Write the structure tokens for this entry.
Amino acid sequence: MPEPVGRRERSKRDKRERIQAAAGALFDERGYAAVTTQEVAERADVAAGTLFRYASTKAELLLMVYNSRVADSLVRGRAAAARRRSPLAKVMALLEPLVVDGRAHDENTAAYQREVMFGSPQEPFRAEALGLFDGLVAEVAEVLASASPGQGAHEGALSAAKAVLAVFHVAILGAAREAPATPALLSDLEAQVGLIVRGFLDAAPTTAREGAPS
């Protein structure tokens, strides 16, 4: 039976939840660039010094908010992927909720992607974000490796999965600049991911033969 949470821990959890909710609401209402940390503190009803104990910069607030949203998107993507049959359909099922949810506010999503890729290595929320996307790479690699079992398949699948995520990140950043319709963005992304998936599957049998004992 889990131990009851103490009053101090409940207070810390409540403050973090209020800060995260306030930051998310303000980013949605006004966009990341227009929001200040002081406004987040006021909306969350905490002192600025208290806010900085939970997120030391506005970028960390953004990472805090969007890490939670990405995690939720990934849960839905896994459920959808489990119902698909082809490798490409499974991979796109994993990516589609991230794309659709991200289009709710292109500016914020692009800012989040920039922080994930180029943010400070000391930021704990960036480390959490990198862990989420590393997990997604591993899941895409598993889909591809399962579609082409054989010696050496997993190594090639991991490289292909990294390429898929690179294409995904570029598509998200491009959406903030070009604002395409979401179906068009997904269609273009599927075409690019399809090239990677087909390339891996076409090459995998050769890799397996080369790795097999003679």
